[in-house]
UniProtKB/TrEMBL annotation:
<keyword id="KW-1133">Transmembrane helix</keyword>
<keyword id="KW-0812">Transmembrane</keyword>
<protein>
    <recommendedName>
        <fullName>DUF4281 domain-containing protein</fullName>
    </recommendedName>
</protein>
<dbReference type="InterPro" id="IPR025461">
    <property type="entry name" value="ABA4-like"/>
</dbReference>
<dbReference type="Pfam" id="PF14108">
    <property type="entry name" value="ABA4-like"/>
</dbReference>
<feature type="transmembrane region" description="Helical">
    <location>
        <begin position="44"/>
        <end position="63"/>
    </location>
</feature>
<feature type="transmembrane region" description="Helical">
    <location>
        <begin position="83"/>
        <end position="103"/>
    </location>
</feature>
<keyword id="KW-0472">Membrane</keyword>
<feature type="transmembrane region" description="Helical">
    <location>
        <begin position="115"/>
        <end position="137"/>
    </location>
</feature>
<feature type="transmembrane region" description="Helical">
    <location>
        <begin position="12"/>
        <end position="32"/>
    </location>
</feature>
Amino acid sequence: MIAPPPTTATLFGMASALALFGWGLLGVAILFRWHRLRDWGAGLAIPLALATLYTAIIGIHWWNAEGGFNSLADVSLLFQSDWLLLAGWVHFLAYDLFIGTWIARDAEARSLPRWLLIAVLPLAFLFGPAGLLLWVLCRTAFQPAFQEKK
């Protein structure tokens, strides 16, 4: 007997759980300074798994969709498809985790304190671009202070 294909609800749950696991890995990697786990696990393997799911959904379901990117009304039409709505969600999950990992790497590369990440990473998790903006503002504000202490 062949199993039925997964539903959008099932894939939504699986993708969300995988992304949450990735954010957990990122937190553990930052806490214990496990760079490989941060870079390869949270920063690459999980975002690539999500990117694979995204690409498969788009590859299969894009051609049947109405709408496009020319207007807000066209984007709204795209997201009337549960499959493309799921693709949009997976897109956010993959990029937000990728950006969160980049922020963590950037903090270390600039020798900025890990406590700065306490405010930034939850914002990147929930509202990706706002977290990125906050990070750029934080690193701009704090970088000179920490360079002087060296």
